[in-house]
Amino acid sequence: MTKDRYLSPGTKVRLESEEGKPEEGVVVHCWGNDEIDAYDCYVAFFGKTLPIREPTEKPYILRYAASSLKVIEPSDEAMMLRDTVVWLREQQEDQSTDTDFTRGYRMGFGFALDTFKNQCDTFGLTEDLGWMQPDLEKWLKESD
């Protein structure tokens, strides 16, 4: 079981069942539930694997605590943040002078990197900036 965290809509997840038949789905909505003091999610499940193209069958929507879902691919927002951090790092490497402009980049990079590390914790990813689609499995942290 993973720690409780917010999963943004569009996050691809896997649910490991007790029968050993995992199901894959996409988070449709996630919210903080005061009754269980954790995050709850509606997930559109497609069966044992996510379709690559238009699904042949309608998904079914089920409700699960975020902590019971394993992230198999982060949302587009997490990928965009990763790309921003990589870009800011590259911009810093190209700067050889110490001006207000370059100090601004360093401040922006520091803020983006802190936010990125929080996202990595949320999505269960390593922080080495190496994770890329489509094979994210090797970059996922092991469950706690």
| CA gyration radius, whole angstroms | 18 Å
What's the number of helices?
Answer: 2
**How far apart, in Å, are the first and last alpha carbons?**
7 Å
What structural class do you assign from the helix and strand content?
A: alpha+beta
Uncertain spans, ≥5 residues at pLDDT below 50? Answer: 131-135
Would you report the number of β strands?
Answer: 5
Q: Round the mean pLDDT to the nearest integer and report it.
A: 77
Strand content: 15-25%
**What is the helix/strand order?**
EEEEEHH
The main sheet orders its strands as 4-3-2-1-5
Helix content: 25-40%
What is the makeup of the main sheet? 5 strands, antiparallel
Q: Given the C-alpha coordinates, what overall shape results?
A: elongated
Which secondary structure elements does this structure contain, and how are they paired or packed?
Elements: E1 12-15, E2 23-33, E3 38-47, E4 60-65, E5 70-73, H1 76-93, H2 100-123
Antiparallel strand pairs: 1-2, 1-5, 2-3, 3-4
Helix pairs in contact: 1-2
How does this structure look, described?
By secondary structure, this protein is an alpha+beta fold. The protein has helices at 76-93, 100-123, and strands at residues 12-15, 23-33, 38-47, 60-65, 70-73. Strands 4-3-2-1-5 form a five-stranded antiparallel beta sheet, with no helix packed on it. A hairpin with a 4-residue loop joins strand 2 (23-33) and strand 3 (38-47). The longest helix has 24 residues, at 100-123. The radius of gyration is 18 Å and the shape is elongated.
